[in-house]
Each structure stands twice: as C-alpha cells, then as structure tokens.
Amino acid sequence: MSGNGIVIVGAGHGGSQLATSLRQEGFDGPITLVSDETDVPYHKPPLSKAFLKTPDMAPQLLRAESTYTDNAITLRFGARVSAIDLQARRLELDDGAPLPFDRLVLATGARARRLAIPGHDLTGIFTLRTADDARALRAAIPAAQSVAVIGGGFVGLEAAASLAGLGKQVTVIEAADRILGRVLAPAMSAYMAGLHQSLGVKLLTGTGVARLDGANGRVTHVTTTDGTHVAADMVIVGIGANPDIGLATQAGLACDNGIVVDGALRTSVPEIFAIGDCVAYAHWQTGSHLRLESVQNATDQARHAARVLAGKPEIAGYREVPWFWSDQGPAKLQMVGLAIGTTRQVISGTPANGAFSIYHFRDDRLQAIDSINRPADHMLGRRMLAANFHPDDALIAAGPAALKAAFAEFSKGQPEAR
C-alpha cells in the first residue's frame, strides 16, 4: 500500500459514519472525506420538518466538526470530483488538484429527480434533498400562500404537513391512485391520506402534471393532465431520486439501478467500495437485487465496510434488517423489513385510534411491519426479523404483551442477533 490511504467521496450519513467507524475499527492510515457540499455533515430528515418551520435553525450536525480533526480525518469540502483515474489510482477534482488513493469508497448518494415538462424552469420551483435546497425553500416560505407538492412520497408529504402547519394552502398531486402507494399497504395509505386531509392538505391522486404556468418568470399554477388548474406560487417537486452513479459509470464500474456491490460492499473494481443510497445489492431477506434509500442502510453499510477495510474477519456478507421512519404531522410512521412479495397482512390495533401496526407476511413468514404511533411494535419487530421469528395470526391478535413474551421465550438459547 502506497500510504495514500482511504478516500471517501460523499459526506452524507454513510460517508461520515464510515470515516469515524474506520478509526473505531483500528484503521490508522490516512482518511480523506470529500464532499461537493460546504456544510459539515448533517442530519437530512429534519430538513423537511423542523428546519423548514424554524427560520434561524442551523442544520443538525451528525457529529461535531472536532470529531474529524480529533480522528485525523482530512475534510475536503466544496470539492467536486470530476473523474476517477483507475490506472493512476487518483481522483480528478474540479479545482485541478488530483487526490491519490489506495482504496476508494463511493458514498455519493442520490440526487433529486427534476421535472421535464413545460415551465420547469420558472422561479418558485424547489426540490428538497440538501441543506442548500432547504435553505432556499425556507427563505421563500413567508411570501408563499398556495403550495403545490408534486409527488406523494415521504419527503413531499413531510413538507406538505410542515407547510400546512404554517397556514399555507397545500395541494399534493400524485400520479398513482394513492399516496405512498409504492411503499405502504392500502390500509396505511388510506390512514395517511385521512391524516393529511385533517391537516388541511388537499390530495389529488391518480393525477399527472402537464405543465407549470407562470407570470413574469414566476410559477402561478400547476396544470394537471385532466386540465385542472391548481393555484401555486410555490411548487415542491418530490418525485423521487436517482442514484448518483456518474463517477462510477465513467470509471466503468458495474451499475444496475445503482453501483453493484457484493456482500463486502466491493464494486466490480476490487479497490473501490460503495455504500448508501447509490448502491444496488442482493438483499438477504427478499432475494431481490435492490437499492435502498435510508439513513439506517447508509450507516449500517458504512459500519460493515469499515470492518472490511480495516481487515477485520468477515462474519458474513452485509445482512442488516432495514428500517425507516417518517414524521408527518402527529403521526410517527415507522417501518421495518421489506414488504416485497408479501401475500397477506395482519392488522394489530385500531386505525381510528391513531395507533396501529400492519404485519406483512409472505405465506407464514413475517417480512415487514409498518406502525403508526406504536414505537414498541417497531422496536420488537426489528428484533423479531433479525432473529427470523415468525408469529402466527393468533399471537399477533393476542396483543403486544403476548407477542413480546413469546419472542422472549423463543430467544432463550438463540444466538444473539447482530
């Protein structure tokens, strides 16, 4: 090894975690963390909630800046990588100073999808992915009266709830026949729809967007595919994200809806690893080749990659139970596992009471649990899925206490789940 150490491209949840985890795992070589952002690594989930509603709030740091200096982690912020030179093992940066590496980790994340329809370039149209995005959106909120959110996914709905709470007239336009339809069961989608309507949010589902209309260069309306005109002096585009794989494809790494990695999180080039939202991998539970966008996945993959890069014995390939959350108004939605390929659902609790869980099964195997305001269900679910514990319908119907007791009995003598 030449002494150039490990270079990490991307300083989000995954990149920041990897840099610190490498030190925790005993790696004592050079570590350089490169980011095209200028902010010290920060939590992204609050950007669509508390950050939007609090004018003087700064991004919430993932860890103090001193953590990086104390651990001899070199920060190269505001630096855009233009290419990977595999032969020379170095990064080409826009500022002209190449950065050599022994091993490289791509933690480039994902970038918000943009609209490609007439009017997409009008002023008053925002995405919400980075702190700079959130700052621009927050600065425009006081002058906005009517807000159109295009896309009924997590980020759009979180922003919709936040803005409705600030007294704005909010309309969510979703092309699918229900909000959150790609990630939630119909019963949970219906509950969340009712919740947003109770907050004053208008929902237009099964509705596409034809164009954005404006006056004097600023957006004033959204015209839907059925000809409806939705007043909007602010538009938030929340139509998902694409993995940031430009550097990987330029370098010839294998990509398929993300940078393809193995169980050690190595790419098709052995000295290059990848983690987080930009990565596609074979998921142990579903058998599917997929890409996950979540804080948990990015940080857990970072910890796994750190063990591999530090030369620790590999227990197994990356195998963590995925979990997610979304705070929307008074609802804390928590999800664990993946409902891909499930065949039936069992509901525990009562949606009308604002606290319930949906258990997703593939035949008799529990694969996922979605919960509203039942955090104990979520935490137990993470342990049950990690241990391959599959309760039957009667046990779920008996209630959380019985389920917890049955799992405790099952766990006696079982190897402790990581």
Total beta-strand segments: 26
Trace the largest sheet across and list its strands: 3-2-1-7-19
Helix content: 25-40%
Summed up, the domain count is 3
Strand fraction band? Answer: 25-35%
Radius of gyration, Cα only, in angstroms? 23 Å
Annotated CATH homologous superfamily of the largest domain: FAD/NAD(P)-binding domain
| CATH architecture descriptor text of the largest domain | 3-Layer(bba) Sandwich
What's the pLDDT, averaged over the residues? 94
List the uncertain runs.
none
CATH topology tier name of the largest domain? FAD/NAD(P)-binding domain
The major beta sheet can be summarized as:
5 strands, parallel
Give the overall shape: globular
Report the top-level CATH class of the largest domain: Alpha Beta
* Continuous helix count: 11
What is the SS-derived class? alpha/beta
Straight-line distance between termini:
32 Å
Notable traits:
418 residues, five-stranded parallel β-sheet, FAD/NAD(P)-binding domain, 11 helices, 3 domains, globular
Account of the 3D structure:
- The chain has 418 residues and is of the alpha/beta class.
- It has 3 domains: 6-110 and 242-309, FAD/NAD(P)-binding domain, CATH 3.50.50.60; 114-239, FAD/NAD(P)-binding domain, CATH 3.50.50.60; 330-411, Enolase-like, domain 1.
- Helices cover 25% and strands 28% of the residues.
- The chain is built from 11 helices and 26 strands.
- It has helices at 13-24, 50-53, 65-70, 131-140, 154-165, 186-198, 246-250, 295-309, 375-386, 393-397, 400-411, and strands spanning 6-9, 31-35, 73-77, 81-85, 90-93, 99-100, 103-106, 110-112, 125-126, 146-150, 169-173, 202-204, 209-215, 218-224, 229-231, 234-237, 241-243, 259-260, 272-274, 279-282, 289-290, 323-328, 331-337, 344-350, 355-362, 365-372.
- Strands 3-2-1-7-19 form a 5-stranded parallel beta sheet.
- Strand 13 (209-215) and strand 14 (218-224) form a beta hairpin.
- It is globular and about 60 Å long.
- It starts with 5 loop residues before the first strand and ends in a 7-residue tail after the last helix.
- The model has no long low-confidence stretch (mean pLDDT 94).
